[in-house]
């Protein structure tokens, strides 16, 4: 049981954070801040900041993804994406099922009988294909 509870030892060279990191030349001396996905300012407490609206202090170094992580960035989804997709598909399927049920069982039949014309729907009288056969050659030669 003790062997199952022991932590696995990973050598230092195999860890990603143990390797020396070269500075990114595109930053040109700007501090490289951690780029974790949970850096949104919406996770921060609402009080205790010099700027409570943006939840940051003045003269703090801005993250290079500040426009995404700020309070004006995209909202953090409350529902996980897979669960949201499943719920949306259930709702859409419910609307489609209700619509098909109403169309097949609740719509009454038409009280009128569709009109039927003799002679193949009056094709000759109304100038159909039989009355106006196509000419094979209409060009002047």
Summarize the structure.
InterPro entries: NDUFB8. It is elongated and about 90 Å long.
Question: Any descriptors?
Answer:
single chain, 28% helix, mainly alpha, transmembrane helix, membrane, 141 residues, NDUFB8
Task: Write the topology of this structure.
Blueprint: H1 2-5, H2 66-69, H3 81-106, H4 118-122
If you had to describe this structure to a student in words, what would you say it looks like?
With 141 residues, the chain is mostly helical. It has four helices and no strands. The longest helix is centred in the middle third of the chain and has 26 residues. InterPro entries: NDUFB8 (IPR008699). Keywords: Membrane, Transmembrane, Transmembrane helix.
> Rg to the nearest angstrom?
36 Å
State the helicity in percent bands. Answer: 25-40%
Query: What is the approximate shape?
Result: elongated
The low-pLDDT segments are: none
Q: Could you give the count of β-strands?
A: 0
Estimate the mean pLDDT confidence. Answer: 78
User: Helix/strand-derived class?
Assistant: mainly alpha
- Bin the strand percentage: under 5%
Counted by DSSP, the helix tally is 4
Main sheet specs? none
């Amino acid at each position: 049981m003790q062997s199952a509870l022991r932590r696995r030892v990973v050598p230092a060279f195999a860890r990603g954070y143990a390797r020396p990191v070269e500075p990114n030349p595109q930053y040109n001396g700007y501090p490289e801040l951690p780029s974790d996905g949970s850096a949104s300012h919406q996770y921060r407490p609402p009080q205790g900041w010099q700027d409570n609206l943006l939840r940051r202090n003045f003269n703090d170094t801005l993250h290079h993804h500040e426009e995404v992580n700020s309070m004006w960035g995209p909202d953090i989804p409350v529902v996980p994406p897979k669960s949201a997709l499943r719920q949306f598909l259930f709702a859409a399927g419910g609307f489609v099922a209700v619509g098909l049920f109403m169309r097949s069982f609740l719509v009454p039949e038409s009280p009128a009988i569709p009109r039927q014309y003799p002679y193949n729907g009056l094709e000759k009288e109304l100038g159909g294909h039989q009355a106006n056969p196509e000419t094979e050659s209409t060009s002047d030669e």
